[in-house]
Amino acid sequence: MSLFSHPDFDGHERVLFAHDAEAGLKAVIAIHSTRLGRAAGGCRMWPYASEDEAVADALRLSRGMTYKNAVAGLDLGGGKAVIVGDPRTDKTPALMRAFGRAVHDLGGRYVTAEDVGMSVADMEIVREVTPHVAGLASGPHASGDPSPVTARGVFEGMRTALLVATGSDDLAGRTVAVQGLGHVGRHLCALLHAAGARLVVSDIDPARVADAERAFDARAVAPDEIARVLADVYAPCALGGVLDDASIPRLGARIVAGAANNQLARPEHADALHARGILYVPDFLYVPDFALNAGGIINVAREIEGRTDDAWLAQRLAAMVANLAAILREAVDRDVSPNAVAEAFARRRLA
Ligand code: NAD
After folding, report:
1. Where in the chain is the domain with CATH 3.40.50.10860?
2. pTM summary value
3. Is 149 a pocket residue for ligand 1 (Cβ < 6 Å)?
């Protein structure tokens, strides 16, 4: 495995490989940029098929956090951690403490929080060994689970995309295909259901699918069908890499707007999506994930900055949605990929 010439390395400031044999910890902590402030981003635990896959995920997620924090207008840099293992069977308090010690060794350059496979309770254990953790349930500035705020941001961003693409942001009677019914996906379904949207859902966990059928009158489809569902919006809320050579020509929705990080399998898929919009559906719109799913990190940023006021949170979310609206309008006006516009927006801040 190469690191400095890795396609996702992109000038990372630091990459820490943390190992603790006794606790069973194998983790990668990647700090892409501290240009705008301390690097902040969640910790993911996943049974990666290989160590190369874990490193690539850490690098891509960390770089994505730099762009996400920049577009959201936060004074935070980008970083991310991944732990190799199955969160259902391999996660122990000793492992979380060993991870926390690795975060602590970075001296506050990186602040961790929860991501896929992690919970608020896990972050409470990390806090036993380091103050450089947010998304906590207790403490003077505790912000708790960031997922409801992420879902709120995705919901508002989805309405913005509908407005730009169709002239109306009304969700009543619209069909939304939600992939992944975890922390964010379920909250998003609740908001969409309350707004009168029809839901089509998929998850690899049958209990979560049954819950959505019951709670939101959702129609379930198999995991490999959700991207093809004829819908107004396809909302990827599971893992990344879902927009690739195979899925893009078969997308059934006119808008892709979801919470999952790194939805593009490769950067050039942004152009493939844009070309599809021109060639097949004139108003097809792909909403770059990092410009849409910053609600959670905004919630975490409130805790890092030692704030508790809801007004600050609401103002930051509104700013994120306003930036997103400007990015989508510019992309449509100039007939360029929204991804390219969003990345240029972030680079202007980083410069
Ligand atoms: P989660 O682990 O709670 O939920 C993920 C869900 O996806 C699970 O229910 C899982 O069973 C399901 N899933 C996995 N593979 C699937 C597949 N192939 N098809 C359908 N379902 C599948 O994670 P989460 O916190 O809800 O995060 C979801 C996504 O949003 C992740 O990509 C995450 O990085 C991103 N994100 C989350 C937040 C946050 O605040 N939690 C913030 C920004 C971005």
Report:
1. 14-126
2. 0.93
3. no
